[in-house]
């Protein structure tokens, strides 16, 4: 595995938590398909597909739930 890139799930604000959720989602794709070239080729397929974009949003939402739980929902 590569160098650590995720020191903590703790964030200062809900917006920072959402941004972290997006990063978690993107890193999941990057680790699943490490080739930049192939990811760029695949992006053309899904960037105009509503179902693919909804699925990506669902992954981000799940990651956001994880970050929210780690932050005790920022209470």
Automatic annotation (TrEMBL):
Organism: Rhizobium ruizarguesonis
Protein name: Peroxidase
Entry's Gene Ontology molecular function annotations: peroxidase activity
Keyword check for Oxidoreductase: yes
InterPro entries reported for this sequence: Hexamer_Tyr-coord_heme_pr_HTHP, HTHP_sf
Record's keyword annotation contains Oxidoreductase: yes
Pfam families to which the protein is assigned, alphabetical: HTHP
UniProt entry keywords in alphabetical sequence: Oxidoreductase, Peroxidase
């Amino acid at each position: 595995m590569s160098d650590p890139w995720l020191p903590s799930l703790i964030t200062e604000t809900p917006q920072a938590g959402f941004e972290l959720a997006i990063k978690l989602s993107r890193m999941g794709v990057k680790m699943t398909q490490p080739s930049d070239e192939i990811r760029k080729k695949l992006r053309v397929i899904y960037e105009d597909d509503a179902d693919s974009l909804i699925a990506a949003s669902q992954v981000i939402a799940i990651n956001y739930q994880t970050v929210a739980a780690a932050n005790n929902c920022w209470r």
